[in-house]
Design goal:
By secondary structure, the protein is mainly alpha-helical. Helix content is about 60%, strand content about 0%.
Length: about 60
């Protein structure tokens, strides 16, 4: 069974997604119709989020 995300975590993830989209040159990602983006563009956002989270976890596990 999937546990719902805590509200503070959901807010942080939403902000993180917007920051990553902005870094990728997709401004106003929150208010745009995602159906107007290609699968590749939408995938870049999620893929880069994952990459950054894995990198962060690796650094923390390495004691940095």
């Amino acid at each position: 069974m999937r546990t719902p995300m805590k509200p503070e975590a959901a807010t942080a993830m939403k902000q993180f997604k917007l920051e990553v989209a902005n870094e990728l040159g997709i401004p106003d990602y929150e208010n745009m119709d995602k159906g107007n983006l290609s699968s590749r563009e939408n995938g870049y956002v999620g893929g880069n989020m994952t990459r950054k989270m894995v990198s962060f976890a690796e650094q923390n596990m390495a004691g940095k």
